[in-house]
Design a protein that fits this description.
Helix content is 30%, strand content 17%. The protein is an alpha/beta fold. The chain has three domains: 44 residues, no CATH class; 260 residues, Rossmann fold (3-Layer(aba) Sandwich), CATH 3.40.50; 71 residues, no CATH class. Strands 3-2-4-5-1-6-7-8-9 form a nine-stranded mixed sheet, sandwiched between helices.
Length: 397
């Protein structure tokens, strides 16, 4: 056997079809781990590896959330963490990895802003669910005297602190917000962007290659650029998209709609290497819960046409659901709809999904139907415990 030969054991001697651990030459030089054909064919998928449906977020895979400043990227990432930890759907994707740890390395949101959002996102949760989030979510405190930033370049003074923090907390997902502050120099330069991406991958995955770097990055600004959130130009939505697009396995684009209704954003697929290219959709922010939910009947083609011409098109106007329609929706659900209004199964969200109305319209329809066709029960604190709001069918006539 020469110095560079590797003795591969028979397949039946291998304990499992996992990757071969790094082997060494006779001189002690490490070699890259390898897989045989039989090991590859014997591999069994773990559904939990696809953290979000269709692999939009997947174990060990880099992902990006890209949008212009003010598009709500940081808040969306927080919502993603809360929903995934609790096992709720996030926007249009089912989540498959509850109670996994999320670490936010961020430089933009202080404790006041974080409290504003998280207080509303977690309002109405049980104490047990609050504990789940408290156990599994950590966010850098940018107001602390010891905070030095999130730069991961080799010569950065914060690099060792970040590496130690990741080892100590051992998160599944590491959110970097924004990418600009994780690197050195002008990230519009290919060399600087390549260095930043390499540093993020090295630091985040050190000791655990299954960790997920979720990078938040700025997209292009302006109405015409926003129109590229989906379609043929979606891959180039981010700044210096050539390097970043080649590095990431999943790219979620988000753009502010600019419509007359506040809080509507547009989502487009820039890349999804682990599954099908998902269809674009619109979502709207509920300012009471600070969570976004999908608008099923938003006219994306009209919006893109208007945005591409330098303007923005409003969503199609929808009639308010009648009291009978509200009651019938409750009836279809078995006479009872439970869940706080920030929960995926809440009545507001069900009305939005069924009729394509806004948050405000859904709530107005409930108020109009209240006492005529439905009755709200529960909610608030009962016997010292937070209870989800429920609606019970009274009269569908």
């Amino acid at each position: 056997m020469n110095a560079f030969s590797v003795e591969i054991p028979d397949d039946d001697e291998l304990p499992d079809p996992s990757p071969i651990t790094s082997t060494s030459t006779s001189s002690g030089t490490k070699l890259l781990p390898l897989l045989t054909l039989n090991q590859i064919l014997a591999y069994e998928d773990d559904p939990a590896d696809l953290v979000w449906e269709d692999g939009v977020l997947a174990v060990g895979e880099e992902a990006c959330l890209i949008g212009a400043p003010g598009a709500g990227k940081s808040r969306l990432a927080l919502q993603a963490a809360v929903c995934t930890i609790l096992g709720w759907p996030f926007l249009k994707w089912q989540t498959n990895a509850p109670d996994q740890r999320w670490l936010f390395l961020q430089t933009e949101n202080n404790a006041r802003r974080l409290k504003h959002d998280l207080e509303r996102m977690t309002r109405g949760l049980s104490e047990a669910d609050r504990r789940r989030i408290d156990d599994n979510l950590r966010i850098t405190n940018i107001g602390h005297i010891d905070f030095e930033g999130i730069c991961m370049s080799p010569d950065s003074t914060s690099r060792d602190m970040i590496a130690a923090l990741i080892r100590e907390f051992d998160p599944t997902v590491v959110v970097i917000d924004p990418l600009r502050d994780a690197g050195r120099g002008d990230l519009n330069n290919d060399g600087a962007m390549t260095e930043a991406c390499h540093a993020i991958r090295k630091i985040v995955k050190e000791g655990n290659p299954r960790r997920i770097p979720l990078v938040i990055h700025h997209g292009r600004t302006g109405a015409c650029e926003a129109a590229k959130v989906f379609g043929d130009d979606a891959a180039s939505f981010g700044r210096n998209s050539k390097v970043l697009h080649g590095w990431t396995r999943s790219q979620i684009n988000v753009a502010w709609s600019g419509t007359e209704e506040d809080g509507i954003v547009i989502f487009g697929c820039g890349k999804n290497s682990n599954g099908p290219r998902w269809k674009p959709f619109a979502a709207q922010l509920d300012t009471e819960t600070m969570m976004y939910s999908v608008l099923e009947n938003f006219d994306l083609d009209a919006w893109k046409d208007g945005a591409g011409k330098g303007g923005r098109s409003a969503a199609s106007s929808k009639a308010l659901p009648t009291a009978v329609e509200v009651a019938n929706l409750v009836k279809v659900a078995g006479g009872k709809v439970t869940g706080g209004e920030n929960a995926p199964g809440g009545l507001v969200q069900q009305l939005r999904k069924a009729f394509g109305v806004t948050v405000a319209q859904a709530k107005a329809a409930i108020e109009a139907a209240r006492g005529v066709t439905i009755q709200s029960v529960g909610g608030g604190r009962i016997d010292g415990k937070q209870q989800a709001l429920s609606y019970v069918l009274m009269d569908a006539a």
